[in-house]
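Title: Comparing notes on inverse folding

I've been comparing how different people in this forum approach sequence design from structure. To keep things fair, I'm posting one structure and asking everyone to reply with a full sequence. Here's the target:
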């Protein structure tokens, strides 16, 4: 293969890349997606204060993953809101579980906490 052919292939590849693949994305910042809402029964809301204290800060943000029975650290990019609290989850899967059945997830987490004490 002649070097000129290689250069032509290289130029062609660069052109194709610029034309189709490598344009700057219109999104300049990747901000946190909006938090999902999940409403928990009133009788379970009292448990949030306990979960809130686990991370050492009483800021109405539960930093531990509720779906993992508060044993995993949550990610602020994967959040849900409910009853005035913000919940962080370790994965999308965990957040989905919480949003679909918040009462069950909260009671399970509290049962696990109580049996661990
Ligand atoms: Zn989790």
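Reply #1:
Here's my take.
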């Amino acid at each position: 293969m002649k070097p000129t052919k290689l250069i032509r292939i290289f130029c062609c590849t660069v052109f194709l890349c610029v034309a189709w693949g490598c344009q700057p994305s219109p999104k300049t910042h990747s901000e946190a997606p909006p938090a999902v809402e999940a409403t928990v029964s009133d009788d379970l809301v009292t448990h949030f204060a306990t979960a809130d204290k686990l991370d050492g800060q009483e800021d109405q943000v539960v930093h531990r993953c509720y779906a993992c029975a508060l044993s995993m650290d949550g990610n602020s990019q994967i959040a849900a809101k409910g009853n005035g609290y913000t919940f962080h989850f370790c994965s999308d899967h965990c957040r989905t579980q919480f949003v679909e059945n918040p009462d069950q997830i909260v009671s399970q987490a509290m049962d696990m906490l109580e049996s661990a004490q």
